[in-house]
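Working notes for the structural subgroup meeting. M.R. asked for a predicted model of this chain before we commit to crystallization trials. I am recording the input and output together here so anyone reviewing the notebook later can reproduce the run.

Input as submitted:
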Amino acid sequence: MDKKVKIKICVGTSCFVQGGSDLLLYNDFIDPEIIEKCDIEGISCFNACKGHENGSAPFVMINDKIYGDMTPEKLNKIVIEVYHARNK
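Returned structure, recorded in token form:
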């Protein structure tokens, strides 16, 4: 059975204005077959912007790991990699 990839997109003010709003349009850039195997949600904030070592806003949490400086292209690439790694 496939294991779902859990994705949380920060939509706090800083993340939202620095590109988080674009990440919410994931239907436009992530393969529909992969999307249906993900649990994706926007969350108000997980306080990653306070000195996080993985970059700056916008932040995304994928299976409890935080990624910064997220772009649609980067999110797509990471989601595909994580999905395939979880479902070998």
